[in-house]
Amino acid sequence: QWQGIETGIGNTQYSGQVTLGTAQSGSNYTLTDNARGGHKTYNLNHGTSGTGSLFSQSSDTWGNGSPSNAATAGADAHFGAAETWDYYKEVYGRSGIRGDGQAAYSRVHYGNSYVNAFWSDSCFCMTYGDGSGNNKPLTSLDVAGHEMTHGVTSATAGLIYSGESGGLNEATSDIFGTAVEFHADNSTDKGDYLVGEKIDINGDGSPLRYMDKPSRDGASKDYWYSGIGNSDVHYSSGPANHWFYLLSEGSGAKVINGVSYNSPTSDGLPVTGIGREKAALIWYKALTTKFTSTTNYAGARSGTLAVAGDLYGTDSAEYKSVADAWAGVNVGE
Ligand code: ASN
Ligand code: ZN
């Protein structure tokens, strides 16, 4: 039921003070974003099934920046859903995860000390744990973009979540999670090529993953090799994440928004970056028009080259950089 579009204020844990799409219901406000398909955010209050309760309160100011306030995670999740919606809508003209104008919904405070977040196609919903003692709630912007992108992948290429296609599925989520974070242009959570740097999942301040040199996490692969499909999908994603970094920013050392990167290539040859927007557009078009459920690394190479040829021509600098970046992660002809 349509309840109008209100603009609330969120005091988030990770993104500072933000505006939130809310709706009025009687004398209360709810986390219902009618400007973005009616996306709702629910409080599971430590449950693990159903929707718990829709965030509802008499004030339209949500959370206080601290995880001890239950609405803080609600504000972060609601903001992450809005920024993910806006990214796909503004950059690709895609309305919602399935492109049908329909919102998903978010659930926060899942279970107890749950150190993960996940997308589910069956509920068409997004769920966040609170983290445990030595890490934090999972509700950061790049995690929101990562997880909801699993829904986009599922609705498009349908990359099977194992083997090389599984690594490409995971990389797609890291690529667009990163792109969402940059596109949000939030002064508290600036864009970076790190995944999950805000949630301190390792308890030592390090991010979950690095795109410039994926092996910095101690497990991800920098370069493709025969048999990489036997690795966990969060590690076989490495070469595609690395390809995206190389194509966006080029090889070698660079500082972006105060973060230092140093991206090597497997062949020792340089790659010239074409910028993040073009790199993401090439991946998006490949995902939505070239990839299938069984696309592997060789198929990702040919699909992205085909897209770059269509967009920029096969004699273009962009086409050459796409090829060079694949060569740089050991994916050849
Ligand atoms: N957070 C994890 C991910 O999106 C959940 C999972 O294991 N699929 O990769
Ligand atoms: Zn994932």
Compute the number of strand runs: 15
CATH evolutionary superfamily of the largest domain: Neutral Protease Domain 2
| Number of separate domains | 2
Bound molecules: asparagine, zinc ion
Q: Which CATH class of the largest domain?
A: Mainly Alpha
N-to-C span: 53 Å
Q: Fraction of residues in helices?
A: 25-40%
- CATH architecture designation of the largest domain: Orthogonal Bundle
Count of helical regions: 8
Radius of gyration: 20 Å
Average pLDDT taken over every residue = 97
Q: Tell me, what's the shape?
A: globular
What structural category do the secondary elements indicate?
alpha+beta
The portion of residues forming beta strands comes to 15-25%
CATH topology grouping of the largest domain:
Neutral Protease, domain 2
**Subunit organisation of the chains:** single chain
**Weakly predicted, low-confidence segments:** none
Biggest sheet descriptor: 6 strands, mixed
- SSE arrangement, N to C: EEEEEEEEHEEEHHEEHHEEHHH
What does this structure look like?
Helix content is 35%, strand content 18%. It is α+β, with helices and mostly antiparallel strands. It has 2 domains: 6-139, Elastase, domain 1, CATH 3.10.170; 163-328, Orthogonal Bundle (Neutral Protease, domain 2), CATH 1.10.390. Strands 4, 5, 6, 9, 10 and 11 form a 6-stranded mixed sheet that branches. A 5-stranded mixed sheet has the order 7-3-2-1-8, covered by helices on one side. Helix 3 packs across helix 5 (238-249) and helix 5 (238-249) packs antiparallel against helix 8. The relative contact order is 0.10. It binds asparagine and zinc ion. The site of zinc ion has 4 residues, from helix 2 and helix 3. Extracellular zinc metalloprotease. It is found in: Secreted.
